[in-house]
Amino acid sequence: MALANLIFTALHDIQATRFAQLASSAIIIFDHLITLDEEVELIWKSSWSMGKALFVINRYYTLLSVIVNNYALFSPTLTDAFCLRFFHWQGWTGLLACMIAEVILQMRLYALYFLNKKVLALMVATFIISSASSAAIMGTVLRGITATAHPLPGTTFCVPFGVPSYFFAFWVPIIVFESLLCGLALFRGFQTFRASGSAFQSGRHLVAILIRDSVLYFLVMFATYFTNMLVWVSASPNLLEIPIAFSVALSCCLGNRMILNVREVHREMEDSRRTEDSIKHQARQTRSSFFGPSEPLSTIEMGQLRSMRAEQSYSQFVVL
After folding, report:
1. Residues 227-266: pLDDT tens digits?
2. What is the C-alpha R_g of the chain?
3. How far is CA 84 from the centre of its chain?
4. Is the overall model pTM greater than 0.85, yes or no?
5. Which of 164, 221, 275, 300 has its CA 20 to 30 A from that of 118?
6. Domains of the chain
């Protein structure tokens, strides 16, 4: 009876892991499909930049992980050596996905703080400490585990052994760093919307998008990482793969959406600016035809022109 219960529990864990992997894969693929038109317009038709490179890596490395993970979970011909390599791949992929999304978020916050070097130094220093700490824990754990490909009717399933009880600590540095980034975004949002005026009046929607996406990313990813930590504290080793799949899927989708949202707003601002410039040019031509050569720009008009140029430079940096 005890053996039957053990087998039933193991099969239940395997089924739950497979369903979770399919669900996380469906999230990634669905997000790819519904944003494909935006990707073509906003990414592939633009020149290469750091933001474009991060988007491509984040999007297509994660898509590759979907293929590898589903092969490892549903292939009937796995070996012990493959299972061990798969657990190494999955562990480092989870960390890499978190790091890429955090780099994207740092770029946005750096823009929100108008290229403040002190804020950049704070973020980079804590990012290095956080990533190094999580990488050290992951590397230590992966060096000590073993893996076995258990045969089941019609398939095999990879099971890890030797996972230490402190493995949950992998998520602690990530959660702390994400909390810092959220605090910076909230503080900048409070500063922005408390101000009575702004040099970038027409660009305030862009700032709002940056703040909104940063806070939304934190809320979703904090819940995801905290759930990961709780599962790793209390669940059996057979269930450790479930939360990793969702952390990779959500960090990928939210990171890509941050880039696409900002680029979409930037494009709308550029279209609006071109339309406004065209109308002003036609008005000047009409005035010149009636009243002769136009007068030199006034002090107010020069101030507006400088503000427009500053706003354009700011928005161009944001969409790196």
Report:
1. 888 888 887 777 777 888 888 898 889 888 888 888 887 7
2. 25
3. 27
4. no
5. 221
6. 13-284+296-318 (1.20.1070)
